[in-house]
């Protein structure tokens, strides 16, 4: 399972550089479900950069003081347990206990960040997340969705508290009629936008899309598709394009919007990983 957490710039960079190996949190309801070998997607609040880590161990303590007494401070990224009360109330600590999350930084994910107004994640009052999937079949072809004049990858919006894996399972079933179960997969690319006055005045929207890839001979089952009314109206269909032709095909589409541009980026990353 992949979980998402936000980090200030300093601890984010400490983890990135390997000088912070233990992330400290309250052991609240969100963290109680963490398991060893799960993944965390950290987002830098200031720069919007993302980083993936693997949970290698979990340590439970009654309070922050006990945690700091157990670990060498050099692994924690801060000098004193009293610093934790800048972020957490003692009442929360007494209620939940605290959690030390031992982590291992994973290889960097190719990422595109669009932030023309130099906003931070804390500025956003609206968050949209998506998960998209590159599927390569046994004939060395890439699966592309076509609807109206749009071309894009299978996948879509992440609903409520869905994980990326749960979103992909649902979206692939709806759009292809085929049920696939995803577990312990990591994205190969990510696009992140933060836009002012979008989609309407006053909104500051952060949009994160993670791109995954699998090799699977997916044969759409049209009878089992569960398309939206818009998809039906726009004649949604799935098509395979040879992977040595797919970039040229997509780049020659007349109207290249942000979604298509990011699709091309993700497929290029996927193809480069195979070299």
CATH fold type of the largest domain = Nucleoside Triphosphate Pyrophosphohydrolase
Structure summary, number of beta strands: 13
Name the CATH homologous superfamily of the largest domain: Nucleoside Triphosphate Pyrophosphohydrolase
Number of domains: 2
Structural class estimated from helices and strands: alpha+beta
Can you summarize this structure?
With 275 residues, the protein is an alpha+beta fold. It has helices at residues 9-17, 29-32, 64-70, 90-96, 164-176, 229-233, 246-251, 258-273, and strands at 2-7, 22-26, 39-44, 50-61, 98-105, 110-114, 126-136, 141-147, 150-152, 154-157, 189-196, 204-215, 237-242. A hairpin with a 5-residue loop joins strand 3 and strand 4 (50-61).
Structure notes:
This protein is an alpha+beta fold. It folds into two domains: 2-105, Archaeosine Trna-guanine Transglycosylase, Chain: A, domain 4 (Roll), CATH 2.30.130.30; 110-273, Nucleoside Triphosphate Pyrophosphohydrolase, CATH 3.90.79.10. It is 24% helix and 34% strand. It contains eight helices and 13 strands. A five-stranded mixed beta sheet has the order 1-3-4-5-2. The protein has a five-stranded mixed beta sheet with strand order 6-11-12-7-10. A three-stranded antiparallel beta sheet has the order 9-8-13. A hairpin with a 2-residue loop joins strand 8 and strand 9. The longest helix is centred in the C-terminal third of the chain and has 16 residues, at 258-273. It starts with a strand and ends with a helix.
């Amino acid at each position: 399972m992949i979980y998402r957490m936000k980090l200030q710039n300093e601890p984010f960079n400490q983890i990135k550089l390997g000088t912070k190996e233990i992330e400290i949190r309250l052991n609240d309801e969100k963290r109680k479900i963490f398991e060893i070998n799960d993944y965390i997607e950290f987002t830098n609040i200031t720069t919007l950069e993302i980083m993936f880590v693997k949970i290698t161990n979990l340590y439970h303590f009654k309070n922050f003081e006990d945690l700091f007494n157990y670990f060498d401070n050099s692994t924690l990224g801060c000098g004193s347990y009293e610093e934790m009360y800048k972020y957490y109330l003692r009442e929360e600590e007494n209620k939940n206990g605290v959690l030390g999350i031992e982590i291992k930084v994973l290889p960097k994910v190719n990422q595109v960040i669009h932030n023309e107004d130099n906003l931070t994640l804390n500025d956003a009052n609206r968050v949209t997340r998506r998960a998209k999937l590159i599927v390569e079949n046994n004939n060395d072809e890439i699966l592309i969705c076509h609807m109206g004049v749009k071309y894009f990858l299978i996948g879509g919006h992440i609903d409520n508290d869905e994980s990326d894996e749960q979103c992909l399972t649902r979206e692939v079933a709806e759009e292809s009629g085929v049920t696939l179960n995803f577990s312990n997969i990591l994205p190969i690319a990510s696009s992140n936008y933060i836009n002012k006055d979008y989609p309407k005045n006053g909104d500051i929207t952060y949009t994160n899309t993670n791109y995954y890839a699998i090799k699977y001979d997916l044969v759409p089952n049209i009878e089992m598709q569960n398309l939206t009314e818009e998809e039906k109206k726009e004649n949604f269909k799935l098509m395979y394009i040879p992977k040595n032709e797919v970039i040229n095909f997509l780049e020659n589409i007349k109207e290249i919007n942000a979604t298509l541009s990011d699709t091309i980026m993700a497929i290029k990353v996927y193809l480069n990983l195979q070299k």
